[in-house]
Specification:
This protein is an all-alpha fold. It has helices at 29-56, 62-95.
């Protein structure tokens, strides 16, 4: 009885006609960082506008202003934490002896 060797055949996946292939959007780190900072900035502006609207009497529900302010505060704290971690990592790299 003879046993045949295992043959390795490359597997290729062909898309089925009519099937939409998912495209993975790749963004650079700089684009991601810019987008994240823009989001934080938008939250800050939204909180400031909510405060002004509350003072002007346009908003009667103070919880909306509080929620907007807390969202902005948490986003800013996260941004500062990430910034501090990046600076710590940079300083650690600069202290390395070559």
């Amino acid at each position: 009885m003879q046993i045949d060797a295992i043959k390795l055949i490359p597997v290729s996946v062909k898309p089925v006609s009519g099937q939409v292939t998912a495209q993975v959007e790749t963004k650079s780190f700089g684009a991601f960082l810019t987008e994240a900072l823009d989001d934080v900035n938008a939250l800050q502006h939204k909180a400031a506008k909510a405060s002004v609207d509350l003072a002007a009497g346009k908003i009667e529900d103070i919880s909306q202003v509080t929620i907007a302010a807390e969202k902005a505060n948490i986003a800013m704290q996260l941004t500062m934490t990430v910034r501090n971690k990046v600076l710590d990592a940079y300083q650690e790299v600069m202290r390395m002896q070559v």
